[in-house]
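To whoever is covering the structure queue this week,

Two jobs came back overnight. Logging them here so there's a record in the thread.

Job A:
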Amino acid sequence: MTVIARNVEEGRLSAGGNKGGADPEASLRAYQARKGRIIVRTSVFLVPLVALATLRNPVAGLQLALGGVVGVLNMLASMHDHERYLERKRHRAVHVLSVQVRIFAVGILPVALALRLGQVWTVGLYLAGFFTPLVLYALEYRRSILRGDF
């Protein structure tokens, strides 16, 4: 058996084995900093768009702003929930239930508001605002990987 085949069989991908790795404290600090940057970037990105949308249609501006705020809150709640689950401070059933309740809550809110105000098409703007922080986080995470911040 070759060295590479033996290493793969033993669960290692490289021939040299696992020597060191990322500093967990530095990774955690980078993670916390990314969360803060995303809140600011979401605000900077959405505030002018909300202003423009509000000038055209106040309900559209409201839905976009609401989507952005709920998107940031959902992102932070999801991250906190996953952190607690990974630290074994939350049971799997409670974790799954909280995720499903959150999905239901953030999904019903824009539809109820749009139906109440009679402008169902604005749900799309809510969804755009809602997913903005998640897209910005994914782009920031990719950028940090390419920079080698881990």
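Job B:
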Amino acid sequence: MNLIILNWLNDHLHGCITASLALTLICGLIYHLETIHQAKMEKAVQLSQAQMENINTLQNQLDVSKQNAEGLKAAFDKAQSGQLQPNTHISVTAPSLPIAAQQVQDRINKQDTSLPPLALQKTDRTVVVQQPGNKDYQVGVYKLNNYRNWEWSTGYGQHGGDRYIPVELQRNFSKDAAVSVEYHYGGDKKGFEVKYTRKTDKLFGLF
């Protein structure tokens, strides 16, 4: 058996190396392109009040799901009615509202450290909005972290001398709770896990 395995490796070594290198390059390229796209989407953008009121526009302009667009619109509506107050605020001196909004957008994208840390906090999306009808805050900054219904993952696992590939599928029921199923593919023994995940600010009320 050892001789057969050794002969197979000798015969296919070049192909295995080539396939591994190709897979590594493809994964590297995908990661690079995704990083560029994500960095672009994290830049602060300007939207009008009318655009903030339209779910389809939010989905298209921000490249987010309907669920995330609806959440952003709901937060915007509450802010305009005074039901949602800003976490922090600053004063900006500018000759007009459009120029003030542009200044805020530019300063966020340049990571101006004179801004409050919350304004510079890295999130999936940052939206700057002119709010002429809001007597208290004429420029609003809305930070959005996308909520995703599903997550999946895979990798490499080893238990003693048994090697396997774990494949996991997770369903997020809220931002704080999820259920996942993990299957172990390959190896001498098959196996799976079912997990319930809960996010909390403190562990057992202590930390």
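Note for Job B: The chain has three domains: 1-41, 43-144, 150-198.

Please reply-all if you pick these up so we don't duplicate work.
Q.
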